[in-house]
Amino acid sequence: MKQRMGLVFGIIAGILLLAVFYGAFMVTPMIVTPKAPDGVFSQKMFYFHVPIALTSFVASAIGAIAAILFLVKKERKYDFISYSSVQLALLFGFLVEWTGIIWTRMEWGAWWAWEPRLTTYLIFMLVYAGYFVLRSSVSDENARARYCAVYAIIAAINTPLSFFSIRLIPAVHPVVFTTSGASMETSMLVTFLIGMAGMTCLFISLLITRTKTESLKEEVDYLKNIIGG
Amino acid sequence: MEFGAAYPFVIAGYMGIIIALISFVLANTFKLSRLQKEIDLLNELIKRKEKK
Questions:
Q1: Which ipTM did the prediction report?
Q2: Interchain contact, B17 vs A212, CB within 8 Å
Q3: How many independent structural domains does chain B possess?
Q4: Is residue B4 part of a domain?
Q5: Domain membership of residue B26 as a residue range
Q6: What is the pLDDT along chain A (229 residues), one digit of tens a residue?
Q7: Cβ A95–B16 below 8 Å, yes or no?
Protein backbone atom coordinates (compact mmCIF):
# COMPACT_ATOMS: atom_id res chain seq x y z
CA MET A 1 0.00 0.00 0.00
CA LYS A 2 2.74 2.44 1.05
CA GLN A 3 4.82 1.50 -2.00
CA ARG A 4 1.80 2.20 -4.22
CA MET A 5 1.39 5.60 -2.54
CA GLY A 6 5.03 6.30 -3.34
CA LEU A 7 4.43 5.44 -6.99
CA VAL A 8 1.27 7.60 -7.14
CA PHE A 9 3.12 10.60 -5.67
CA GLY A 10 6.02 9.93 -8.05
CA ILE A 11 3.74 9.97 -11.10
CA ILE A 12 2.00 13.18 -9.91
CA ALA A 13 5.43 14.74 -9.33
CA GLY A 14 6.56 13.76 -12.84
CA ILE A 15 3.50 15.33 -14.45
CA LEU A 16 3.77 18.52 -12.40
CA LEU A 17 7.49 18.91 -13.06
CA LEU A 18 6.97 18.45 -16.81
CA ALA A 19 4.32 21.18 -16.57
CA VAL A 20 6.92 23.43 -14.89
CA PHE A 21 9.36 22.86 -17.79
CA TYR A 22 6.60 23.85 -20.20
CA GLY A 23 5.58 26.83 -18.09
CA ALA A 24 9.15 28.06 -17.57
CA PHE A 25 10.13 28.05 -21.24
CA MET A 26 6.82 28.44 -23.10
CA VAL A 27 4.40 30.39 -20.92
CA THR A 28 6.23 32.72 -18.55
CA PRO A 29 7.49 36.02 -19.98
CA MET A 30 11.16 36.85 -20.34
CA ILE A 31 12.24 39.59 -17.94
CA VAL A 32 13.76 42.46 -19.92
CA THR A 33 16.13 44.96 -18.31
CA PRO A 34 18.08 47.87 -19.82
CA LYS A 35 21.27 45.78 -19.42
CA ALA A 36 19.68 42.71 -21.05
CA PRO A 37 17.33 43.87 -23.85
CA ASP A 38 17.03 40.26 -25.16
CA GLY A 39 15.79 39.11 -21.76
CA VAL A 40 17.30 37.65 -18.60
CA PHE A 41 17.45 33.95 -19.48
CA SER A 42 19.09 33.01 -16.17
CA GLN A 43 15.78 33.80 -14.45
CA LYS A 44 14.45 30.48 -15.86
CA MET A 45 16.45 28.70 -13.13
CA PHE A 46 14.12 30.22 -10.52
CA TYR A 47 11.23 27.79 -11.24
CA PHE A 48 13.28 24.83 -10.04
CA HIS A 49 15.89 26.42 -7.78
CA VAL A 50 13.47 27.94 -5.25
CA PRO A 51 11.05 24.95 -4.97
CA ILE A 52 14.05 22.61 -4.47
CA ALA A 53 15.47 24.94 -1.81
CA LEU A 54 12.16 25.17 0.07
CA THR A 55 11.73 21.37 -0.16
CA SER A 56 15.20 20.90 1.33
CA PHE A 57 14.08 23.03 4.30
CA VAL A 58 10.91 20.92 4.63
CA ALA A 59 13.05 17.74 4.51
CA SER A 60 15.25 19.14 7.25
CA ALA A 61 12.21 19.98 9.42
CA ILE A 62 10.65 16.52 8.90
CA GLY A 63 14.01 14.92 9.74
CA ALA A 64 14.01 16.79 13.05
CA ILE A 65 10.32 16.10 13.85
CA ALA A 66 10.77 12.36 13.16
CA ALA A 67 13.91 12.42 15.32
CA ILE A 68 11.94 13.96 18.23
CA LEU A 69 9.21 11.32 17.76
CA PHE A 70 11.88 8.60 17.81
CA LEU A 71 13.35 9.90 21.07
CA VAL A 72 9.88 10.10 22.65
CA LYS A 73 8.27 6.90 21.32
CA LYS A 74 11.40 4.75 20.71
CA GLU A 75 9.89 3.30 17.54
CA ARG A 76 12.37 2.35 14.79
CA LYS A 77 10.13 3.64 12.00
CA TYR A 78 10.72 7.23 13.13
CA ASP A 79 14.48 6.68 12.92
CA PHE A 80 14.03 5.43 9.34
CA ILE A 81 11.87 8.46 8.46
CA SER A 82 14.39 10.85 10.02
CA TYR A 83 17.35 9.18 8.26
CA SER A 84 15.56 9.15 4.89
CA SER A 85 14.49 12.77 5.28
CA VAL A 86 18.04 13.87 6.09
CA GLN A 87 19.27 12.01 2.99
CA LEU A 88 16.73 13.87 0.90
CA ALA A 89 17.64 17.21 2.53
CA LEU A 90 21.22 16.61 1.38
CA LEU A 91 20.15 15.50 -2.12
CA PHE A 92 17.96 18.57 -2.57
CA GLY A 93 20.73 20.65 -0.99
CA PHE A 94 23.18 19.54 -3.68
CA LEU A 95 20.66 20.46 -6.37
CA VAL A 96 20.12 23.89 -4.80
CA GLU A 97 23.89 24.49 -4.77
CA TRP A 98 24.18 23.22 -8.35
CA THR A 99 21.48 25.49 -9.74
CA GLY A 100 22.60 28.28 -7.39
CA ILE A 101 26.25 28.40 -8.50
CA ILE A 102 25.18 28.33 -12.15
CA TRP A 103 22.82 31.27 -11.58
CA THR A 104 25.50 33.10 -9.55
CA ARG A 105 28.00 32.65 -12.40
CA MET A 106 25.50 34.04 -14.90
CA GLU A 107 24.32 37.01 -12.85
CA TRP A 108 27.23 37.95 -10.59
CA GLY A 109 30.04 36.76 -12.86
CA ALA A 110 31.51 34.49 -10.16
CA TRP A 111 30.84 30.91 -9.10
CA TRP A 112 30.66 31.77 -5.43
CA ALA A 113 30.11 34.75 -3.13
CA TRP A 114 30.54 34.72 0.63
CA GLU A 115 27.19 36.35 1.32
CA PRO A 116 24.72 35.35 4.10
CA ARG A 117 22.40 33.00 2.16
CA LEU A 118 25.10 31.12 0.30
CA THR A 119 27.25 30.78 3.41
CA THR A 120 24.43 29.63 5.72
CA TYR A 121 23.25 27.18 3.05
CA LEU A 122 26.79 25.78 2.68
CA ILE A 123 26.84 25.27 6.48
CA PHE A 124 23.40 23.59 6.19
CA MET A 125 24.85 21.09 3.70
CA LEU A 126 28.09 20.46 5.60
CA VAL A 127 26.15 19.82 8.83
CA TYR A 128 23.96 17.25 7.03
CA ALA A 129 27.03 15.65 5.43
CA GLY A 130 28.34 15.22 8.99
CA TYR A 131 25.17 13.29 9.87
CA PHE A 132 26.27 10.46 7.56
CA VAL A 133 29.75 10.37 9.07
CA LEU A 134 28.13 9.94 12.50
CA ARG A 135 25.68 7.32 11.22
CA SER A 136 28.41 5.20 9.69
CA SER A 137 30.74 5.45 12.68
CA VAL A 138 28.47 3.94 15.36
CA SER A 139 28.02 0.18 15.12
CA ASP A 140 25.40 -0.37 17.84
CA GLU A 141 21.96 0.10 16.19
CA ASN A 142 20.17 1.64 19.17
CA ALA A 143 23.00 4.00 20.07
CA ARG A 144 23.35 5.00 16.41
CA ALA A 145 19.65 5.82 16.12
CA ARG A 146 19.73 7.83 19.37
CA TYR A 147 22.84 9.86 18.49
CA CYS A 148 21.58 10.52 14.96
CA ALA A 149 18.19 11.67 16.28
CA VAL A 150 19.89 14.22 18.56
CA TYR A 151 22.15 15.32 15.68
CA ALA A 152 19.19 15.72 13.28
CA ILE A 153 17.43 17.98 15.81
CA ILE A 154 20.54 20.15 16.32
CA ALA A 155 21.21 20.25 12.54
CA ALA A 156 17.71 21.59 11.86
CA ILE A 157 18.48 24.73 13.91
CA ASN A 158 20.45 26.04 10.90
CA THR A 159 17.35 25.80 8.65
CA PRO A 160 15.51 28.93 9.91
CA LEU A 161 18.87 30.73 10.07
CA SER A 162 19.44 30.01 6.38
CA PHE A 163 15.83 30.84 5.45
CA PHE A 164 15.75 34.20 7.24
CA SER A 165 19.38 35.18 6.55
CA ILE A 166 18.55 37.25 3.45
CA ARG A 167 15.60 38.87 5.19
CA LEU A 168 17.48 39.87 8.33
CA ILE A 169 20.99 40.64 7.05
CA PRO A 170 21.65 42.91 4.05
CA ALA A 171 22.56 40.54 1.20
CA VAL A 172 22.95 40.46 -2.57
CA HIS A 173 20.85 37.28 -2.90
CA PRO A 174 17.45 38.24 -4.39
CA VAL A 175 14.36 38.15 -2.16
CA VAL A 176 11.26 37.31 -4.20
CA PHE A 177 8.72 36.68 -1.45
CA THR A 178 8.38 39.44 1.11
CA THR A 179 5.69 40.44 3.59
CA SER A 180 4.13 42.60 0.84
CA GLY A 181 3.70 39.55 -1.45
CA ALA A 182 5.43 38.03 -4.45
CA SER A 183 7.06 40.46 -6.90
CA MET A 184 6.23 38.59 -10.13
CA GLU A 185 3.55 38.16 -12.79
CA THR A 186 0.63 35.73 -12.34
CA SER A 187 1.92 33.21 -14.92
CA MET A 188 5.29 33.16 -13.18
CA LEU A 189 3.69 32.69 -9.77
CA VAL A 190 1.47 29.84 -11.07
CA THR A 191 4.51 28.09 -12.65
CA PHE A 192 6.40 28.50 -9.39
CA LEU A 193 3.48 27.08 -7.35
CA ILE A 194 3.21 24.07 -9.70
CA GLY A 195 6.96 23.57 -9.21
CA MET A 196 6.47 23.74 -5.46
CA ALA A 197 3.67 21.15 -5.57
CA GLY A 198 5.74 18.91 -7.89
CA MET A 199 8.81 19.02 -5.65
CA THR A 200 6.69 18.32 -2.55
CA CYS A 201 5.12 15.27 -4.27
CA LEU A 202 8.58 14.11 -5.35
CA PHE A 203 9.85 14.50 -1.80
CA ILE A 204 6.91 12.49 -0.38
CA SER A 205 7.41 9.78 -3.01
CA LEU A 206 11.15 9.52 -2.32
CA LEU A 207 10.59 9.62 1.44
CA ILE A 208 8.15 6.70 1.25
CA THR A 209 10.54 4.69 -0.97
CA ARG A 210 13.60 5.42 1.19
CA THR A 211 11.77 4.59 4.43
CA LYS A 212 10.51 1.34 2.93
CA THR A 213 14.07 0.47 1.81
CA GLU A 214 15.39 1.02 5.34
CA SER A 215 12.69 -1.15 6.91
CA LEU A 216 13.38 -3.92 4.34
CA LYS A 217 17.10 -3.73 5.17
CA GLU A 218 16.26 -4.32 8.82
CA GLU A 219 14.01 -7.24 7.86
CA VAL A 220 16.85 -8.78 5.81
CA ASP A 221 19.21 -8.51 8.80
CA TYR A 222 16.58 -10.08 11.07
CA LEU A 223 16.00 -13.01 8.68
CA LYS A 224 19.77 -13.50 8.27
CA ASN A 225 20.09 -13.69 12.05
CA ILE A 226 17.36 -16.38 12.17
CA ILE A 227 19.17 -18.46 9.54
CA GLY A 228 22.54 -17.85 11.18
CA GLY A 229 21.20 -18.81 14.64
CA MET B 1 24.96 37.77 -19.04
CA GLU B 2 23.64 37.91 -22.61
CA PHE B 3 20.83 35.63 -23.72
CA GLY B 4 23.05 33.45 -25.98
CA ALA B 5 25.79 33.14 -23.37
CA ALA B 6 23.33 32.17 -20.61
CA TYR B 7 21.79 29.37 -22.67
CA PRO B 8 24.39 26.61 -21.95
CA PHE B 9 24.40 27.46 -18.24
CA VAL B 10 20.62 27.09 -17.93
CA ILE B 11 20.69 23.84 -19.93
CA ALA B 12 23.50 22.52 -17.68
CA GLY B 13 21.47 23.48 -14.60
CA TYR B 14 18.34 21.70 -15.74
CA MET B 15 20.28 18.65 -17.03
CA GLY B 16 21.97 18.36 -13.63
CA ILE B 17 18.61 18.34 -11.83
CA ILE B 18 17.14 15.76 -14.23
CA ILE B 19 20.17 13.42 -14.10
CA ALA B 20 20.48 13.59 -10.30
CA LEU B 21 16.78 12.99 -9.62
CA ILE B 22 16.38 10.18 -12.16
CA SER B 23 19.57 8.47 -10.87
CA PHE B 24 18.33 8.70 -7.27
CA VAL B 25 14.87 7.36 -8.15
CA LEU B 26 16.29 4.48 -10.23
CA ALA B 27 18.90 3.57 -7.60
CA ASN B 28 16.20 3.42 -4.93
CA THR B 29 13.82 1.41 -7.09
CA PHE B 30 16.51 -1.18 -7.90
CA LYS B 31 17.60 -1.37 -4.26
CA LEU B 32 14.01 -1.86 -3.11
CA SER B 33 13.45 -4.61 -5.67
CA ARG B 34 16.76 -6.34 -4.70
CA LEU B 35 15.86 -6.26 -1.00
CA GLN B 36 12.40 -7.67 -1.70
CA LYS B 37 13.96 -10.56 -3.67
CA GLU B 38 16.47 -11.15 -0.86
CA ILE B 39 13.64 -11.33 1.70
CA ASP B 40 11.74 -13.84 -0.45
CA LEU B 41 14.89 -15.95 -0.78
CA LEU B 42 15.61 -15.83 2.96
CA ASN B 43 12.00 -16.77 3.78
CA GLU B 44 12.32 -19.73 1.42
CA LEU B 45 15.53 -20.79 3.13
CA ILE B 46 13.90 -20.57 6.56
CA LYS B 47 10.98 -22.71 5.38
CA ARG B 48 13.37 -25.36 4.02
CA LYS B 49 15.35 -25.30 7.28
CA GLU B 50 12.14 -25.80 9.28
CA LYS B 51 11.09 -28.77 7.09
CA LYS B 52 14.44 -30.48 7.69
A1: 0.84
A2: no
A3: 1
A4: no
A5: 21-52
A6: 666 888 899 999 999 999 999 999 898 888 777 777 777 788 888 999 999 999 999 999 999 999 999 999 999 999 999 999 999 999 999 999 999 999 888 888 889 889 888 999 999 999 999 999 999 999 898 999 999 999 999 999 989 988 888 788 777 787 777 777 777 888 999 999 999 999 999 999 999 999 999 999 999 999 998 887 5
A7: yes
**Cα dihedral A166, A170, A171, A173 sign:** positive
**Cα(A109)–Cα(B5) distance, integer angstroms:** 12
B6 in a structural domain = no
DSSP-derived 3-state class of residue A216:
helix
What does the domain layout of chain A look like in residue ranges?
2-174+188-228
Q: Is residue B52 part of a domain?
A: yes
- Collapsing DSSP to helix, strand or coil, A178 comes out as strand
Q: Looking at beta carbons, which residues of chain A come within 8 Å of B10? A: 41-42, 44-45, 102, 106
In a domain, B31, yes or no: yes
Of A107, A213, A217, the CB nearest to B1: A107
CA distances from A4 to A22, A126, A132, A205, B7 (A): 27, 33, 28, 10, 38
Per CB-CB distance under 8 Å, the chain B contacts of A107 are 1
